[in-house]
Amino acid sequence: MKVLKRIGKILIVFLLLVACLYGFYKVRVSTSGNLNVLIIGIDAREGESVSRSDSLMLAHVNKNHKIVDLISIPRDSYVYIPAVDREEKITHAHAYAGIEGTIETVENLFDIQIDKYVEVDFTKMIALVDTLDGIDVTPTATFCEQDENDQADSYCFTEGEKEHMDGKNALAYARHRKSDSDFARAKRQQEVIKAMVSKVKSESVVTMFNFYQDVTKISDTDFGVWDIFGYADMAFHDFELRQSVGEGEGGMFYDAYYGQNLWQYYLNDAWLENTKILLQE
Fold first, then answer.
1. What is the rounded CA–CA span in Å between residue 192 and residue 187?
2. Over the stretch 51-66, which tens digit does the pLDDT of each residue have?
3. Please, what is the angle between helix 2-19 and helix 205-217, to 10°?
4. Which pick of 25, 45, 196, 244 has the fewest CB atoms within 10 Å?
């Protein structure tokens, strides 16, 4: 049983560390001991064949220092998109060139290599959170949000009041941005990730394996056993989970390509340079 429990923690805790939110992911163990995993959240409607990315996160795992940096990139960040050879909102990269176009754009933005990626529909997190019998989150803002069927104001949250959220509540909390900003939503998504990591580390081996099975059912993966063991020791030591969101300034700016003013978010040069340095550590 001790061996089984150890394997369970290796499989499940490590998965949450490097990809978090909403699904399983593809990972390659790098020789440097560092790993960059791009998490692409989509919110495509039924019948849509092309969609923009609705959420972008970069998980940088530094095995040697036992640190996981989770970096959210605001969807309206105005950056260079190689696939179309011009600057546009980073969310458009996925619509133009899919996963590969998004990866190429993020690699160009940070001057790094993306080792692996995960692309998951927002709604998939419902099943994952429910497998854990919910998560505990203390809302950082007061608001109401529509449900998974677009029914308005179905879920309401109060700032500072701890709440045990099932999958549907967690989804509503993580996707809300109408009352504040994309920046604030990115922070909420990270709160959900952190709660999931905390919960899964404390669960029984049975729950861990149930979670693992749900993850594999809703995801496409080439994550092998040896990849897992490459970073497995992190599951049994204290590690630091550092969270950040791309700093910058948003507003209405003229876009020459579209010939009109559009809402755009310009990442702060200092933040961008500091993040590049962090990703080289």
1. 9
2. 788 889 998 988 778 8
3. 40
4. 45
CB 52 within 8 A of CB 91: yes
In the CATH scheme, what architecture does the domain 2-132+182-279 have?
Answer: 3-Layer(aba) Sandwich (3.40)
Low-confidence ranges of the chain (pLDDT < 70): 1-33, 43-50, 122, 203-213, 215-238
Sign of the torsion formed by the C-alpha atoms of 166, 170, 171 and 176: positive
- Alpha helices by DSSP H, 202-262: 205-217, 225-231
| Domain layout of the chain by residue ranges | 2-132+182-279
Tell me what pLDDT residue 108 has.
97
Distance CA 185, CA 140 (A): 10
- The strand pair at 86-89 and 163-165 is best described as unpaired
